[in-house]
Amino acid sequence: MQLRDPAHHVSPRAIVFWTVRAVPGWLILLAVQLLWFLTSRGDEGLRVAALAVTVVFASAHLVVMPRWRYRVHRWEVTDTAVYTQSGWLSQERRIAPISRVQTVDTERGPLEQLFRLANVTVTTASAAGPLRIHGLDRATADGLVAQLTEITSRSEGDAT
Amino acid sequence: MTLNGSQHGAQRDESWRRLSTRMLLVHPVRELVRYIPALVGLVVAGRSVGDGEMWWWGPLGVVLVIALSVLRWATTRYRITAEQVQLRTGLLQRKTVATPADRVRSVDVTASPLHRLLGLAKVDIGTGSQRSASGSGSGLTLDSLPTAEAAALRAELLHRALSPSVDERAGSSPSEPGGLPFEAVPVGDVPVAPDPDIELVRLDPRWVRFAPFTMSGVLAAAAILGLGWNLLDQMNVTPSDVGPVRGFVDHMEQTAIWLGILQVMVALAAAVIALSIGGYVLSYWGFRLTRHSQGSLHITRGLLTTRATSIEERRLRGVELGEPLLLRAVHAARLSGITTGLESRGRADGGSSLLLPPAPLAVARALAAQILRDAAPVEVSLTAHGPAARRRRFLRVLLPASVLVVGAGAAIWSGGSLWLGLGAVLTIPVAVLLAADRYRSLGHALSGGALVTQQGSLGRRRDVLACDGIIGWNLRQTYFQRRAGLATLTATTAAGRQRYAVTDLPLSMAVALGNRALPGLFGDFLEPEVPEAPGAGSPIAPG
Fold first, then answer.
1. Calpha distance B543→B537 (Å, rounded)
2. Confidence class of residue B187 from pLDDT cuts 50, 70 and 90?
3. Cβ–Cβ below 8 Å for B523 and A1
4. Distances from the Cα of A13 to the Cαs of A100, A116, A118, in angstroms?
5. Most buried among A90, B1, B83, B358, by the most CB within 10 A?
6. What is residue A158's predicted lDDT score, i.e. its pLDDT?
7. What pLDDT sits at residue A159?
8. What pLDDT, on a 0 to 100 scale, did the predictor assign at position B515?
């Protein structure tokens, strides 16, 4: 018995967003190494090797991670359940019945606003189970929230 | 049983009430103890400023602290109305905390030795809201009421909180007051005799023998050592200057090293055993678990500080049977509840969710069966997770062990002691035993409408979680799990730990398990079944 992938991809702009978001971390590391490269003398080989390794890993990460993420990150909402899939090296699928949904939020960080993206978070009564959909197109996110609000208002109970 | 019937007379007392007058004896003492460092500072400062003319600083501080605590008592009022429990505190900054009475999920009554001497008890009213992590607004504390009043309040609040469930059962039993809201129950109704509590379990003093097999003694010993060391350090005393320590060091210098180590070990073991037994007796003496016919479990325990906890059964989503390695070795276990709205999990004495302190395994299992009203989830034999999961158990302990061996090898090669290598190599068999036991413990089942999952070796735990308490699934695969075809299925819930994981089971088994536990939820998301060769498990009914 297998689960299929959720139906919808997130916005393709998320690829660029994830790339840009990962850049500062690598830049800091590179800056530290450059400082080391310029200030110290001796063991030149070691310094060059370290720098090269960082550059290789950084570019591999920046090329592979966002595309891999884009292939994994998916979502789907039916009348009975919310289903998300996220991650890249570690992947996680989360399913929550609509009847247990407590709140639906959207949020946009400054960088996400730049890329006209939004996150949707669906929480249940459990501290362990918020379902997050990252990198949605803003219009899609708004539509999704409206749809979820509409569906959840139809179900009853206190969702615990 | 009517709520404002015989005990409380015709008119409910809804006026603002003060905490017990006797608290005027408790508060100042406690505050003085709390402010000792500041007071000592004041005395020292008073002495040193201007030739000791400011000697009155210290006494003034004491008077101030006492006055403040009296003021606190005088400005604290509480009242219990039909809808709410309200607590008002503060003189300048008045604060009123209100808790809706029908949201009350737990009422703990605690009495420290000082409280007991004065016939008082503290009442903690919990509403168990998850979102108020700040601690405020998640209930309130009445510190303190006379013991009888505290007990009456607890009974009253709990029964009131239970009244909705009485509503639900309305009509099913004619002795109930018709499921009316309690305010509307006519006063002078025929007094219903209080239902006797059914005792489920009571502490057998012989269970104290399990105390040394818990970690509590080790933790207590470490805490005491740490505290002592800190004290010496703060007082600028070198440990070797202290008489007994000095004597100990001299003694050690004169004995053979192995004898010295042996003596220290024996002394440590004795201390740990004594501490753990002391802790067990202090926390659990007089432990008694009863079931009230209106649907709650009541726990009373404690030697010096007594504690009474109630758990509503409709908030109970299951139980955790804890069998840490040492307890397992002596066929013992402890039991806690999986409950919505109890926050004090993780405390050394088990907190509010404790259902049974370390006790014989048979007793723990029987109690779990009684609480769940079904023996199956506790007794059921678990489905193992297969060879890939076993490989993973071994890899995960053998990798660190081999890193250790390689490290030791490098150390020896660069001139380290050979003992290092011996120690590192010895971790391998330990790791193998651990992995084997971890695999043996790993398993899951669906039984009696509950998800049963068990894992761990040093801290083995069997969780029984009612399927209707599951409010979602997380199906997680790390990179290595994907390569091994495994997944970790986590049931999320509003109760207890919030997450109960079934670790490292084959992916298809995980999906099937989730699908069986909450039928229909996966429905739309399942891959269309590829028709397999017939006879692969499910027998086809003739006709």
1. 18
2. very low
3. no
4. 31, 8, 11
5. B358
6. 53
7. 53
8. 92
User: Using alpha carbons only, how large is chain B's radius of gyration in Å?
Assistant: 29
Contact A126 B524 (CB under 8 A): no
Domain of B233 in residue numbering reads as: 207-283
Domain stop point among B237, B268, B283: B283
Q: What's the pLDDT score for residue A34? A: 87
Flag whether pLDDT at B40 surpasses 90.
no
B521 and B395 fall within a common domain: yes
Q: Which residue of A has its CA nearest to B131?
A: A127
Instruction: Give the closest of B512, B514, B526 to A4, CB-based.
Output: B526
Q: What residues of B are in contact with residue A76 (Cβ under 8 Å)?
A: 525
Domains, chain A, ordered by start: 1-160 (2.30.29.30)
Q: What is the DSSP string of A86-121?
A: EESSSEEEEEEEGGGEEEEEEE--HHHHHTTEEEEE
Residue linked to tokens 């070796």: B457
pLDDT at position B239, please? 62
Establish if B64 belongs to a structural domain: no
- Of the candidates A88, A72, A117, A99, the one whose C-alpha atom is nearest the C-alpha of residue A159 is A99
pTM of the model: 0.78
Provide the domain count of chain B: 2
Q: Does some domain include residue B539? A: no
| Sole residue written with tokens 């399990």 | B210
